[in-house]
Design goal:
- There is one protein chain.
- By secondary structure, the protein is mainly alpha-helical.
- The protein has a domain of 63 residues.
- It is built from 32 helices and no strands.
- Helix content is 74%, strand content 0%.
Length: 618
């Protein structure tokens, strides 16, 4: 800690001499020692306060005041709002955020203060501003079109926020109208994203649509969001993710008691799994569809539905049971169908005869069955506030670090594990405030930006991605290279999307950093962006890095990408894969080896087959 004290004291001396930029670098180095003993850390903070006071930096002083007793009089309205939040006065925080023009932040504070009317008014104002801006940029350049699509997405979320805060006396009608408007905006955003080639963002819009449908119990919106999410995953050949989405969609339909819809989704999943050649999953989905059709028939019979409709559900279940060689189950279903109330007597007799013919039949079927079963979706992230807050922060590191700090303050383990997280957030915020107050292309500005990237990289939090994305367009190649390095440490899929954009950089240092970062993305969540990099990256070293990373991921999508390169890739690409596999010999039971054996069984040229066997060690 003596180094941190020395840096703080040196910064104080420079501050008193009027050497602002050098002082800031020393002060930030002192603040970065987040693991210090509390007494040592407090001593450094006292010096920091004195130095920032000498530099006349009210926002930094407001930030440091959060560590003790927040002082709402130290800085501008946004920082005043955060001080009020720390003091527990959400209503005062809302007023200050509104004064700062941060309407989403103000609305969230109104909700925390149990003021839905005030929150609704603020959400409505924001929706009005967003709808005007979206309409103005319907035709624009690529960058402006992307910004307009983002605003359309946020508009959809904000309109749902309006619905959530509708007055009790008119909630049903007002909420329905606002939800319809929200879904319309999200549909618009998804279409814009897809037309711009931003399929990941279109997927996000459809996921938000499904989440809103689940939250508002409007099943038609759940279906629209889920079905389109599955479509994008299927078109991008993300088979396992598509199957997982099918699992969740089926479970959600069941939870809404939409058994017929769940059965149809299971049948669609059956056809998809069959097309993939996944026999165990095919059988599992088909059996699930049979069970759901039968359950739908029983529910319809109990509810007094038209007998023909009930019979159709039973016949669908019976047809699937016959396909699956479950003849004992088919006999039972025929017996149930013969007992459908008010069904035509001739039809009842037909079902009774079929049940008699199958008397004594038993269920058979393949032994290799993979019943994925119902997989309910996890708790939905409240994207209608989280994503809107991120949009309003616009990649400003000082605001993002403040949010992370407040989350750490309110964490259950407030005095223990969250302490380093709170200090890291303070250090990042001080670094971001230093960057915001200096010309970016100066030597000092570049050093401060590099320091900010380092502080952001220390916080493994999804929210820092927007700050890194903003810094990825910095004028300095060294800063952009640091951003690529930081993205390599982040476990979020969004970090790989940042690397895909950075892979188009003209600077050699940035390309080298991207290559190293891409090679670290050895997790299944990165398969899709890695495959895209392996196909599309302009630089051979980035393509090779993506292939090396894919070679280390044990799932079907990664394995197929690697095998395709071994079969038909360029010489340098095949070499990259072979070298990666030599360093990490594949498990004999891995997806890569299993699928490699299947390709060998289908027949390959002698040269490719020999190279494949050597690479896979078979």
């Amino acid at each position: 800690m003596s180094d941190a004290r020395d840096a703080a004291q040196r910064g104080l001396v420079l501050a008193r001499q009027g050497n602002k930029n050098e002082a800031l670098l020393h002060l930030l180095a002192a603040a970065a020692d987040v693991d210090a003993d509390p007494r040592d850390y407090d001593a450094v903070v006292r010096v920091l306060v004195e130095a920032y006071r000498a530099l006349q930096r009210p926002r930094e002083l407001a930030t440091l005041s959060w560590l003790e007793t927040a002082d709402p009089k130290l800085a501008g309205p946004a920082d005043v709002a955060r001080a009020h939040r720390l003091l527990g006065d959400e209503a005062a925080a809302a007023r200050s955020f509104e004064e700062a023009g941060m309407l989403a932040h103000a609305a969230v504070c109104r909700e925390r203060a149990h003021d839905p009317g005030g929150a609704r008014a603020l959400w409505s104002r924001l929706a009005h501003e967003l709808s005007r801006n979206v309409d103005q940029e319907r035709t624009a350049s690529q960058d402006r079109a992307e910004r307009a699509a983002e605003r359309a997405y946020v508009l959809g979320l904000v309109r749902f926020d309006v619905a959530r805060n509708a007055p009790r006396e008119s909630r049903d009608k007002a909420s329905r109208e606002a939800i319809v408007a929200a879904i319309g905006a999200l549909e618009d955003a998804a279409q814009r994203f897809e037309s711009l080639g931003l399929r990941e963002r279109a997927f996000d819009a459809y996921q938000a649509m499904a989440a809103i449908g689940e939250n508002s119990r409007t099943f038609e919106h759940v279906v629209e969001g889920r079905v389109n999410s599955i479509r994008i995953l299927r078109e991008d050949h993300l088979q396992q993710y598509a199957l997982s989405q099918y699992d969740e969609a089926i479970a959600v339909a069941e939870a809404h008691h939409e058994l017929a819809a769940a059965a149809e989704l299971a049948r669609e999943a059956t056809a998809y799994a069959r097309g993939l050649g996944a026999a165990p999953e095919t059988y599992g989905y088909a059996r699930r569809a049979m069970e759901l059709h039968a359950a739908a028939g029983r529910l319809l019979a109990r509810n007094g539905a038209p007998p023909e409709l009930t019979e159709n559900a039973y016949l669908a279940a019976i047809g699937l049971s016959a396909e699956l060689d479950l003849l004992g189950t088919a006999a039972k279903l025929y017996t149930e169908a013969a007992a459908i109330p008010d069904l035509d007597e001739a039809r009842k007799a037909r079902h009774q005869r079929a049940a008699q013919r199958l008397r004594g039949a038993v269920d058979t079927g393949p032994a290799d069955v993979r019943d994925r079963g119902a997989r309910p979706a996890g708790a939905a992230l409240e994207v209608w506030t989280v994503d809107v807050i991120e949009w309003e922060q616009a990649g400003r590191g000082e605001e993002i670090a403040a949010e992370i700090y407040f989350d750490a303050v309110h964490a259950p383990n407030r005095g223990g594990a969250s302490l380093p997280a709170r200090r890291r957030a303070i250090a990042a915020r001080l670094a971001a405030l230093a960057v915001a107050g200096i010309e970016p292309d100066t030597t000092e500005g570049i050093k401060l930006a590099e320091n900010l990237v380092a502080r952001l990289a220390e916080m493994v939090d999804y929210r820092v991605m927007s700050a890194l994305e903003a810094l990825a367009s910095h004028g300095s190649a060294s800063v952009r290279a640091r951003v690529a390095e930081a993205a390599g440490t982040m476990p979020f899929k969004r970090s790989a999307q940042l690397l895909r954009r950075a892979a188009r950089d003209d600077a050699r240092d940035v390309i080298a950093a991207v290559g190293k970062a891409v090679a670290r993305k050895q997790s299944a969540v990165f398969v899709d962006p890695l495959r895209r990099l392996a196909r599309e990256a302009q630089h051979a070293e980035i393509r090779a890095a993506a292939l090396r990373a894919l070679s280390s991921i044990d799932n079907a999508e990664a394995a197929n990408a690697v095998l395709s390169v071994l079969e038909a890739g360029a010489a340098e690409e095949r070499l990259a894969v072979v070298e990666a596999l030599k360093r990490r010999r594949p498990d004999p039971n891995s997806q890569l080896v299993t699928l490699g054996r299947e390709r060998l069984a289908r027949g390959l040229s002698a040269e490719v087959a020999a190279e494949l066997k050597v690479a896979l060690g078979i």
